[in-house]
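Re: that chain you flagged

S.,

Sorry for the slow reply, it's been a week of failed gels. I finally had a moment to sit down with the sequence you sent. For the record, here it is as I used it:
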Amino acid sequence: MSLKHCIIHHIERAVPGAEVITTLREQENNCSGAAYSLFEQLKQSYQRSSQKQYGHFDREQTDNPVPGWLLEHLQGKTPFARNSQRLLEHLQQKMGANDEAFSAHIMIALETVMEQDQLYIFWINHVDANVIDSNMDVGAARYIDSSKMQFGIRLFVEEWQEQDSQKYLSIITSRGNKNLSDGFEGFIGFSSGIDIVEETSEFLHIVDEYASSLPSDKVSEYKGKILDYCVAQDKQGSPVVFEDISSELNEQEPSAFAQFVTTNQQSPKSEIYTDRSSLKRYVRFFGRDKNMSISFSADMMGQDIIFDEASGTLTLKQIPKSLRQQLKQSKNAPIPTNSAANTPKTETENSAE
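Prediction finished late last night. Pasting the structure tokens below so you have them in one place:
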């Protein structure tokens, strides 16, 4: 089994401004059965999240004890359970700097995947619900909502120890509560190492340049394969590896695309993490205002849809059948008349004239 260690603790501030209380488990949870199932659900939610930031421990935060504690465990000096308790006590301190009320279970787990250790810290959300018991009475219950990841951390241990990476640490923080997000980010000592929006933009620009050298009938196919691969990797929480996608694009020249990418990058890399929002905008154009909403595949631009930048107009050569039918019905419908003009005048109005 790949899950080596797993333990769950609890942290809470019952009401705003109150003391932060932790309930610490002494022994590790069983790494099989229900705990393992929950870990897999949480890990999947973490990997699928589009809110991940990639970086490293902040080197300027010299008072951050977390790297030292983790190193002690890896060297066999501190048991995993005791190390996890230290982490919760540190999180308690950081969360004490704000007044927000919260309640969460924290799962800390160490997994080995392909002989590489990965440390996860998950903030587990709960949802209140109603239940009907055997006596047909309605009662309250709480259940784990593993589908939404509010806060989470993943550390690639070997990559961290090599000390030549800017992206061995990733984090998810909630956009809805800045105080809790700041506390959680400060707890791990996170520093952003890469700008995935900028790197994705550069990569997609290179994809366009590469596609411009292809026969016109191959452009859509090539772009589709590249984007499908990027989206699949992003949903798995994995990087886009240029050699992998390159070999899928051209079996006769398996390194052609990878070489083109690295040649045209400002800082050559063999892989990058991508920004999902940027990928979506690349695949589709969309926009809306108070009176209009437009969305269409990027493949249609220049063919069935023409954009005139000078006049700011779009020309649609093909429209969906359902929209065509609506427009046809609208054209044949009677034109509404001015109700005020056709309303019979009252006796008072006639006399006033």
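What I noticed first: The longest helix spans residues 216-235.

Talk soon,
D.
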